[in-house]
Amino acid sequence: MPNVEDMNKWAVIACDQFTSQPAYWEEVKNFVGYSPSAYNLIFPEAMLNENIPENISRINSTMNNYIEQKIFSEYKNSYVYVERTLLDGSIRKGIVGVIDLEQYDFTPDSKSKIRATEQTVVERIPVRKSIRENAALELSHVILLCDDERRDIIEPMTLSKHAMRKIYDFDLMQGGGNVKGWSVRGEHSRALTTRINLYIKRKSKELSVLFAVGDGNHSLAAAKACYEEGLTSRYAMVELENIYDDAIKFEPIHRIVKNVNPDELIALMKNEICVNGWTNPKNSWPIKFYSHNKSGVVNIAKAKGASALIVLQKFLDDKKFDIDYIHGLETLKELSNENNCIGFEMLPFDENAKHDFFKVISQSGVMPRKTFSMGHAQEKRYYIEARKIKNVG
Questions:
Q1: pLDDT of residue 328
Q2: Does pTM top 0.70 for this prediction?
């Protein structure tokens, strides 16, 4: 755990957020200044076009310096119980621990007990792998989901937290809400491990997948690649959350296509994946688009695939368009006004999404990449805890 004066400057949001808004990361950099911060230990994707080898070397060197300066306090053989207060005031609960990477696989036909929920873009793994392979520490934004409808694993922690040591309680930068953490050790740790094992035994009779990666799959895939090459630890740090937690909300992730003539793209879509003329909900999905301060609707044919997102994503991928993934409708509208850009508003999830989530993955495999988001961008996991995965020097 970081032992610093200003945790507000230490904790930084997941590196794969605000990829189309580099100004966000400039504000973070200016806010942090010269203070010890997780910002100095990560590589925001918005900055991936800037001196990659030099930045990775700087990150690894800073990790070593922080360890030598004894910035961290070590908590052996423990979990962390986390309560994150979100923008709407709800509290999302989680447990920070580790998973065995031998039990995790991100390939579409995986039969492993820990799986990706969405398609993994293998091209995104090498840079993350390069960051991790020589790193002394891992900081994680991975959220792992369990299908605990009984609320047996995490929820009992709310009753026992008062008997545990609170190790942090602070407001997160850039409107991220509040986060609290308790050290789970001794009898509390043993009881939690027992509850996890009982969940595994019970769910193994129902599902082929017991845990699903809700956020951070590419970082976890990089950790897997590093382990398989003998570069780093067999285990990776994650935060486990219950998909039935009332504070977990699935939000659609919108698409924006850059460097394209919007009118030509719409014409191509209407020719290849849409229905023509009059339509109704029985044969199409209406998808709204935004471009040049105007909007419209394309009706994607249901005959083309299982969902509007699957059809649209395959179309855009096959044509090799320059795509970015946007959290928040207002941000999508704003970015769609830029020249040669068009944004597509994806449909919201229905009420049955949580109940069917693990069954769909268990039976059908991974979903298209960036299918959903667990809350708004500011509600993603922030880097707080660190874990040593390699000795310094």
A1: 84
A2: yes
